[in-house]
Every structure is written in structure tokens, then in C-alpha cells.
Design goal:
The chain has helices spanning 17-28, 71-81, 100-110, 173-179, 191-201, 228-243, 246-251, 254-267, 272-287, 289-301, 307-312, and strands at residues 7-13, 35-42, 59-65, 86-90, 94-96, 116-123, 126-132, 135-138, 143-145, 159-161, 168-172, 206-216, 314-315. It has 317 residues and is α/β, with parallel strands linked by helices. The strands form two sheets. Strands 1, 2, 3, 4, 5, 6, 7, 10, 11 and 12 form a ten-stranded mixed β-sheet that branches. The protein has a three-stranded mixed β-sheet with strand order 9-8-13. It is globular and about 50 Å long.
Length: 317
């Protein structure tokens, strides 16, 4: 193992301080200990940071925002300051297995041409069940976790994947130089899908590493964000406008399925809030459409992979 590789670990955090301490404790217990820790305080009101680490060998950089700018901006600020050749992104409600970093270092040495690594994320309240073994996007426009709800003993082989969940993952620093940073207009939700797709269009490759294990108490932070439903709807639409070639949208009739999916979302378990979130999402997209279309133009102009490969990104289920 190359012990000279410095890893920059970035943790955006918004309150949930007790969970953050548990997350950092799991980092302090890593078998691979050459890393710096960058904590982005995203407007938290819980500011008891004196317990964060007593390990003097670990460099800790804290960045404090005056409000919650969302996951994307928090990660970007950390990436800009990162000194490591490898950058790990970890949610504040994630607990890492002791060999999480070590196994990702091995993978980075083994797959020298791969720029991003997804990990096996288990459910915090039931570690025998998988939350994610990577992400996928279907031809009908649905974004979902691979392996969600499956037994933790499954998905045990390393394999190439197309989308990386940012709850617990690792990228080479060169990836962000090639692809750019997270789109800060996403705020939170699906910013990882967006950047993964942008990387795919540029020919970047990702691997799923099942030996890099973690547990995630999903949505423990976002459940306190009253606009989370709005972001999910809005960002899932923007992804298609920004990153998907029109041939695929037309050929797969994705526009039809997207419309159907959102109508079902509103009708099933109808609530005024769902309708408001949908309306607000559409209003946002309308007033920002020129900017989004300019992003699309840039993305489509810079495509470096063949159309057939882009088709393969989308799963049938």
C-alpha cells in the first residue's frame, strides 16, 4: 500500500452534533491514518466543536458558514482547500468501518485510471441491509440506489458503475479539475448525480468497492430542512435538462415518463405541500431556464464519449 497518499476528508455538517462526533470517532479509528479532516459547519446552531478530535496527528480545518448553503457549496469549499490527492466526501450521519480508507487506497492503486469510487453503504438502524451499492438512473427518469433493501452480503464484487452517491465516497482531486465542482445551485439533493453524469460525458470512470463499508442514518440531517421536497423535485428535473442528450429523451420517451412520475407523486398521498413544491420547482426552472440551457449547451459541446456509451448509462429498471 502506498502510505504516502494524503486523503482529504470533507464532512459538511448541519447540527446533529452527536452524530458528527460518532462519525469523526470512526474516522479517528481508521487503520489508514494519513489524512486531513475538513469540517464545513453549514450554519449549525450546535457549535460545541471542542470534542471533535483529541488526536494531535490529525489536521482539522473548520469552515463556518453563517447559514445553511446546502451540501454542494459546502463540499466545494472543502475541495478548494483540500491538499490531498484523494478526496473523501462523508455525510455527518455516516459511521465508517475501520478499514474504509485503507480499502479505498488499495482500490485507487489498483484502478489507476478510475477517478471515482463508490462504497457499500449499509442502513444505520439495520446493518444487515444495504442502502446503496452505487446509484443508477432509469430510462423512465427515476433516480435510485443500487441494492437498496437487499441483504448486506450481496453486491460483493467490485464493478464499474455510472453514478456515485456522495454520502460516503472518494474521488481523485484531478476529477474536479477535469469535471468542475458541484453545481451550487442544486443546494442539496442529486448534486452527486449531476456531477457523476457530467463526468461520464467527459469519459471519467467509476468503480464500486464493496469492502469499503459504512453505515448511514439516512436523511437525519435533511429531515430538518423544510425545503427538502422542493429540492428533490427541482433538481431531478434540472438533471435531465442539463445532462441528457435529446436523442435519448426522445427515443426513450423520457419526457412522458417524467410527467407521469411527477403527477403520480402529487396524486398519491396528496398534500398541499407536494403541490406547492412542484409549483415552486417549475417556477424556479422557468426563471432560470436560460442559465440551465447554457449549462446544457456547454455539457453537450464537450461530450467525449460515444452515443452508445451514453445509452448504456441508463438502466431498464
Amino acid at each position: 500500500m502506498n502510505t504516502k497518499i494524503l486523503v482529504s476528508i470533507i464532512i459538511p455538517t448541519y447540527n446533529q452534533h452527536d452524530l458528527l462526533l460518532k462519525c469523526i470517532e470512526s474516522i479517528n479509528n481508521q487503520s489508514y491514518n494519513l489524512y486531513e479532516l475538513i469540517i464545513i459547519n453549514n450554519g449549525s446552531t450546535e457549535t460545541n466543536t471542542n470534542k471533535i478530535s483529541k488526536n494531535k496527528n490529525i489536521k482539522i480545518l473548520q469552515i463556518n458558514f453563517n447559514k445553511n448553503y446546502g451540501f454542494a457549496k459546502a463540499c466545494n469549499e472543502g475541495i478548494k482547500r483540500a491538499k490531498g490527492d484523494l478526496i473523501a466526501l462523508i455525510n455527518n450521519d455516516v459511521i465508517l468501518d475501520r478499514n474504509w480508507l485503507a480499502n479505498l487506497i488499495k482500490a485507487s492503486n489498483k484502478y489507476s485510471k478510475v477517478s471515482g469510487f463508490a462504497t457499500k453503504i449499509l442502513k444505520f438502524n439495520n446493518p444487515n441491509i444495504i442502502e446503496s451499492a452505487g446509484d443508477k438512473i432509469t430510462r423512465k427518469g427515476i433516480i435510485k440506489h443500487i441494492g437498496d433493501g437487499e441483504n448486506s452480503k450481496l453486491f460483493f464484487k467490485e464493478k464499474e458503475i455510472y453514478l456515485i452517491p456522495a454520502a460516503a465516497c472518494m474521488f481523485r482531486k484531478t476529477f474536479f479539475k477535469q469535471v468542475g465542482l458541484f453545481d451550487e445551485k442544486f443546494g442539496s439533493y442529486f448534486e452527486d448525480v449531476d456531477i457523476s453524469l457530467r463526468g461520464q460525458l467527459l469519459g471519467e470512470k467509476y468503480m464500486y468497492i464493496p469492502t469499503a463499508l459504512s453505515m448511514h442514518l439516512g436523511k437525519s440531517t435533511s429531515k430538518n430542512m423544510i425545503r427538502s421536497g422542493y429540492y428533490q423535485i427541482r433538481n431531478s428535473i434540472i438533471i435531465w435538462i442539463k445532462n441528457i442528450p435529446q436523442q435519448i429523451i426522445i427515443k426513450e420517451k423520457t419526457w412522458f415518463y417524467l410527467l407521469k412520475n411527477y403527477l403520480i407523486l402529487i396524486i398519491q398521498n396528496f398534500s398541499i405541500m407536494k403541490s406547492i413544491n412542484m409549483l415552486k420547482a417549475l417556477i424556479y426552472i422557468f426563471f432560470n431556464l436560460i442559465f440551465i440551457l447554457n449549462q446544457r449547451k456547454e455539457n453537450m459541446r464537450n461530450i467525449k464519449v460515444k452515443y452508445r456509451y451514453i445509452e448504456s448509462i441508463f438502466s431498464n429498471d
